[in-house]
Design goal:
Elements (H helix, E strand, L loop, with lengths): L2 H21 L9 H15 L5 H14 L4 H10 L4 H28 L8
Helix pairs in contact: 2-3, 2-5
Length: 120
């Protein structure tokens, strides 16, 4: 094979591989609904805490780490489903169920606490 043919073959191969690489989009990662709803629930609670913004930011960072999410993944998921009422209905249904379970646990724990003596 002549050197000209080798160079042309090499350039054609590089061009072909470059075309393949450019056409493949990175696969987006969307968290499962259960993970997303748990993270969202915790973030909504953080939003209403009466603490300074840097402390809130640190707590949000901890939540994302806990659920193995990046801020970008979380925001992309929110944006992707922004106009999908069925998605949000499912998310809030899951959140409500978890809150009801937590409430039942707290009520059960409160019943086990000794009652304060009534003063006459």
């Amino acid at each position: 094979m002549s050197s000209t043919k080798t160079v042309i073959l090499f350039l054609a191969t590089v061009l072909f591989l470059n075309t393949l690489a450019c056409n493949q989009k990175p696969k987006e990662h969307f968290p499962k609904k259960e993970i997303f709803s748990k993270a969202l629930q915790e973030m909504l609670i953080i939003q209403y805490l009466k603490i300074k913004e840097p402390e809130k930011a640190a707590l949000v960072k901890d939540v994302l780490k806990k659920y193995h999410l990046s801020k970008k993944e979380f925001e992309i998921t929110k944006a992707r489903y922004a106009q999908d009422p069925e998605f949000w209905a499912e998310i809030f249904k899951r959140m409500r169920k978890r809150l009801e379970e937590e409430n039942r646990k707290l009520q059960k724990a409160n019943k086990k606490l000794p009652q304060k003596a009534k003063h006459k």
